[in-house]
Amino acid sequence: MPVGLFRVCLLVITAIVNHPLFFPKENGTVPENTEEIMQKMKEREESLRLEQLRLEQEIADQEATQKALEKAAVVVEESKEEKVRWDMWTALSMVIFLLIELWRQDFQEGNWQDVGVEEDDMAVLGKAFKGVAFPDKAVLASFYEKRILGTTGDMARMREMVEGFADDLLEALRSVCNRDADMEVEDCVGVGSMYENWRVRKPFVCDLIVPFAPPEPYCFRCQTWCSGDSFPPDEQGYGTIKVCRADDDATGCICDKTKLGEDMLCLLHSQLSSTRPSSEMEDLLCFKNTQYLDADQVMKWFQIAVTKAWNRISHKYEFDLSFSLLDSPGALKIKFKSGKSIAFNLTPVVQYENSDVYFISHFPRSSLAADIPSSTHWFLTFAVYERRFIQLVSKTLPANACHVSCLQILSFLHGKQCSLTGPSGLTNYHLKTVLLHLLQARPSQDWAPEKLEARLQDMLKFLEKCLHEKKLYHFFVGNGKVPAELGFPVIFQRAEPLNLFRPFVLRRDIYRKMVDTFHEMLRNMSALINEYTVHIPLVHTNGIRKEPL
Hints:
Blueprint: H1 2-17, H2 26-111, H3 119-124, H4 137-148, H5 151-176, E1 184-185, E2 189-191, E3 205-213, E4 218-224, E5 238-245, H6 271-274, H7 278-283, H8 295-313, E6 319-323, E7 331-336, E8 341-351, E9 358-360, E10 378-381, H9 383-394, H10 403-421, H11 428-441, H12 452-469, H13 490-493, H14 508-531, E11 538-539, E12 545-546
Parallel strand pairs: 3-8
Antiparallel strand pairs: 1-3, 2-3, 4-5, 5-10, 6-7, 7-8, 8-9, 9-10, 11-12
Helix pairs in contact: 5-8, 10-11, 10-12, 10-14, 11-12
Protein name: Inositol 1,4,5-trisphosphate receptor-interacting protein
Function: Enhances Ca(2+)-mediated inhibition of inositol 1,4,5-triphosphate receptor (ITPR) Ca(2+) release.
Membrane topology: Single-pass type I membrane protein
């Protein structure tokens, strides 16, 4: 019975569950639901495919980025290794360069004057001499005797007259100046070719330099390009002159370098002494708003002072005095009633410390200081030491030595050539520098009078070499072999050699003109000399003279 009842209940429940009212229209909706599901599944599949593609792209990008980073790391590592190798090569190159530079300086200190003066060196030079007929000894001797030798007496008489008048003029200048406010003028010093006895071309012009000093309590403090201060390459050979009070410390007080504060005062320098009125410095011929001596202001003051001095003593003389050249402020000319005239240069200079080196305001008739950086830059002149060196060496040479004759002949030829083709960058000072180098390099017996022809050829070949290399060193600056008897300042001996041809390195037009003038002078040398030479009998190779018919 229970079993049957259970079966009946199970049957009823089954019938109820499977009754169609519980699932109405089930068979009619199944196809629609399937189609929708399939559409959604396709969309989902497409979405998953796109997501897969995006993920694959991201993975690929990440892999590419990772490879790029790894490659960059490798490049950085290689660059570090390369940099280390490069730094090692750079350091090694610098060491080698420094060693070469030290060797060059040592070699230059000992042998820079000897370059180009040995016989072997002379043999490889002289390319410009090919095809040039060089005058023989007889022609040169006749030319020197006729054209040059007779001018020596004229120079001596002119020097004596000019020096006497200049002394009188400077004495009058001192009397018209205010001793408490104006510059103090010292005695003049004769320099240049007139006082070294090698000037040949007329008109003769005496060059006199006039040292001056500031009034008390002021003094000059000079700085040169080789004194340790930084000077650009184009200012080598120049210096500046600072006007200071004599009681100022030359090294500078700490109050000039440190801010002491408003409540602290320097016991050595008061506030009034540290700042001077600009008018006071201008009265001391300084550049505007500075303490540096102005060359233009100095020349204006000097011209005014000379004019006042001449007005005071003009009644004593039977001639007129005037300034002859506008571009050379110290150029003076004496005019006699007969129409004759005498020219001379009176140039103010400042003495460098206790030596005979001077800061010169202007170079008369010279291109040495044609491009002065500013009016506060003064060129240094060693003219006094050059004159002393020639006098000192002359005492050791044979009688009637040919060194002055060589310079006179070369100066004459150069002057004649410039009168034909116009002036060039080559000056008589360059020619004198060549002679000074050869005087130091060659033994005394090489300057005997009978060796005039050989030494003249040496000078021309030395000059040709310098023109080719664009290097002609100043004789005194950087020359450690200057005789101790001259008392030349050591600071200039230890300085780097000063190339006088440096201004022509970048100015090719002037350099080309200078070289062309030199070559033209060589080609015209025989003609220029023969023009001033008496007839010399012809000489056969067997030594027998043949007189003309």
